């Protein structure tokens, strides 16, 4: 329990210090006299500035589309040197059951 009491007291001390520091900073930052903001006099009428002419941009070159190349033909598979396996032979049908004499 003493650990938590110590922690609590340190937190309160540091927060008190912060509060005092903030109060001092606020007191230092207060201006003595607030001066009204200066409003500049309206400028005398002047003719609008002539826009600077920019030369026209050259036409943008569009790249020509890449020629379409057909996909390469599929590679021919080499023939298998082994013959294809034949169909599996089905077992002979069972013979009919004979009655015992």
Written overview of the protein:
With 101 residues, the protein is mainly alpha-helical. It is built from one helix and no strands. It is flat. The model has no long low-confidence stretch (mean pLDDT 72).
Q: What string gives the helices and strands in order?
A: H
Question: Uncertain regions: pLDDT < 50 for 5+ in a row?
Answer: none
- Which structural class do the helices and strands define? mainly alpha
Number of strands: 0
Intertermini distance: 103 Å
Shape: flat
Number of helical regions? 1
Largest sheet: none
What is the residue-averaged pLDDT?
72
Rg calculated over all Cα atoms: 50 Å
The percentage of residues in β strands lies in: under 5%
Into which percent range does the helicity of residues fall?
25-40%
Biased composition (Pro residues): 37-76, 83-101
Biased composition (Acidic residues): 25-35
Protein name: Fused signal recognition particle receptor
Keywords: Receptor
What secondary-structure arrangement, pairings included, does this model have?
Blueprint: H1 2-29
Quickly describe the structure.
28% of the residues lie in helices and 0% in strands.
Key words describing this protein structure:
single chain, 101 residues, mainly alpha, 28% helix, flat, Fused signal recognition particle receptor, receptor
């Amino acid at each position: 329990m003493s650990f938590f009491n110590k922690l609590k007291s340190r937190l309160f001390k540091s927060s008190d210090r912060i509060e005092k520091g903030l109060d001092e900073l606020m007191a230092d930052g207060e201006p003595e006299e607030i001066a009204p903001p200066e409003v500049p006099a309206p400028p005398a009428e002047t003719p609008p500035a002539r826009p600077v002419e920019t030369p026209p941009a050259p036409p943008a070159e569009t790249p020509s589309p890449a020629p379409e190349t057909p996909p390469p033909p599929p590679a021919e598979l080499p023939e298998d040197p082994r013959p294809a396996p034949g169909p599996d032979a089905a077992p002979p049908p069972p013979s009919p059951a004979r009655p015992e004499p």
